[in-house]
Amino acid sequence: MSTAFTVIRDSTPESVIPKGSVVAMGNFDGVHLGHRAVIGAALAMGKAHGVPALAVTFEPHPRSFFSPNTPQFRLTDETNKLRLLAATGLAGAVVMTFDKARAGTSAQDFIHHDLIRRLGISGIAVGYDFHFGKGRVGSPSLLVSEAPRLGIEVDVQAHVDIAERPVSSSAIRMALAEGEVTDATTMLGGPWFVTGKVIHGEKRGRDLGYPTANIRLDKHCGLKHGIYAVRVGKGAQRFDGVASFGRRPTFDNGAPLLEVFLFDFKGDLYDAVLDVAFIGFIREELKFDTIEALIRQMDDDSAKARAHLAAAPNAFPQLGAID
To answer: Which of 29, 86, 149, 175 could form a disulfide with 169 if both were Cys (CB 3.0 to 4.6 A apart)?
Structure first.
């Protein structure tokens, strides 16, 4: 394996998979502090044995397979999950396709075929509540009981608590749904962010003196509608700004749209791919009776956004490159 973060998929030839690696296994939606404890355990185990440490994760998220008609607010899509994993020090990730065949694989067959034979693991780290295999029979305790016979090391990480509350992807989704981006940042270990391509909009912002970069987020995004202080990444460049996510009740009350105004920026962003990190919540979305009232509020929002960003000058997710 190269020194770059390498992604191994079901189609990857077994001959190029680095045997003897240790793995951190989980769904890793958001790569939050609980996930990072599992990853840290795998990194420590790999360092102790002088072998690479990899993440083992599943796509699509198993929830999407088992409940295809239930909206799923994912904290990170596959690409952004891998970018976050690539910044942790892991050597790579094994992305296993979660389909009917994998859902029907018994826990024992998964251990013996996928982990031992195909990946050739020498150790594994998991969270206390991670389950796998048909009927979710696979558990940390099963891995611990099987470890001596398989000749592998197993590390089970307890839950990570903040203010006596366990960190979880569900808790982060709930925080974002309530606009509590500071709480989400604390649990994630960095700001929550989205990535998207800038599209053409109605250009109302330009007429108001606030030209925006418009991004359509996933239709199941559960972020609270409102105004946010944001830090935007365009490649290696960083820009501060203020963003609105919602339906624009003053104008059309249409489909939810993320509209980002970058401070002190001039240029064309159409078709650019931006990372937008949410640093602070300013207010809920409002309907204004006049354009003048809206502009006064936007001026106030911008001042508050600048204050949020000045208080967190280096806040931005740590992202790695994917090979």
So the answer is: 29
